[in-house]
Prior knowledge:
single chain; 348 residues; alpha/beta; 4-stranded antiparallel sheet; 12 helices; 12 strands; 20% strand; globular; binds adenosine-5'-triphosphate; binds magnesium ion; Oligopeptide transport system ATP-binding protein; transport
Amino acid sequence: xxxxxxxxxxxxxxxxxxxxxxxxxxxxxxxxxxxxxxxxxxxxxxxxxxxxxxxxxxxxxxxxxxxxxxxxxxxxxxxxxxxxxxxxxxxxxxxxxxxxxxxxxxxxxxxxxxxxxxxxxxxxxxxxxxxxxxxxxxxxxxxxxxxxxxxxxxxxxxxxxxxxxxxxxxxxxxxxxxxxxxxxxxxxxxxxxxxxxxxxxxxxxxxxxxxxxxxxxxxxxxxxxxxxxxxxxxxxxxxxxxxxxxxxxxxxxxxxxxxxxxxxxxxxxxxxxxxxxxxxxxxxxxxxxxxxxxxxxxxxxxxxxxxxxxxxxxxxxxxxxxxxxxxxxxxxxxxxxxxxxxxxxxxx
Length: 348
Ligand SMILES: Nc1ncnc2c1ncn2[C@@H]1O[C@H](COP(=O)(O)OP(=O)(O)OP(=O)(O)O)[C@@H](O)[C@H]1O
Ligand SMILES: [Mg+2]
């Protein structure tokens, strides 16, 4: 895989203003996140509310400043750019939000709002700009006659098509979709998902598709990354991840996804995670998932697991998959196999 976008060890924190004694304390919204997106690939980014998905997306756009880490687009280090150079590079990464009004100014007609990036980055105006906007409207499945309309004159799904048209206006390398279909009803969701897939195939654009909805991500993404409390706990090809989740958190998330086939649904046990997500301002030590993990071991409470390759592709950060110095006897899975083997021996 040739990576178009490389994110390496990205960390973002926010100052905590609450409380006298916590002055100077910071909330680590994104904590050492690394991933790559190939050209023409859709990477899904999933996780519970507050896990740091949006902050990751915003840091890629430099809408929030990362504390540390690197973001490279076609090899250019974006975190090092400033001023004019940063503005020039911004066009290569665009964002589509859940609320289309975050991308579309309600007081601007379509020609202006969809055409704005063309003015800013390519200096196009008047008829030339409008012609390009018409092409974009057609590309996203809208009528080219809508140039003089305001966003409120469109349905929710159409407004999202406008937001996509604006994002695609300057032919970006990567489009970050942050919960872009979450506010839409299921059939409109499907239409937008199909549109994104068509655009990906047609234009070769890459997408970082952020969503809390794993069934939506499954329809679109070739690879998926799972975040928990600011850390990326698992990533890998969709097929492997959905069929054989390696992290107990991924397993739990997936068990909550409705399965279309009723037979499968009945057979599948739903895992209910014990406890609420921990306080992000005071995360647990070791693996931050350990207080809610049904498989938690002693090592999980004190040692942060490192990314470990998974059979079938991708990596996982979980001590069930590591064999470190802490577990002198070998991996936990081997230990468990040995134990259950021993139990069978005694029984026979
Ligand atoms: N501007 C900010 N100032 C302070 N804290 C913030 C800010 N933005 C996000 N956070 C905190 O950072 C953490 C991650 O938030 P983020 O919005 O990235 O999560 P998310 O995964 O996108 O959640 P959701 O699914 O609800 O959109 C949360 O604890 C959040 O409260
Ligand atoms: Mg978010």
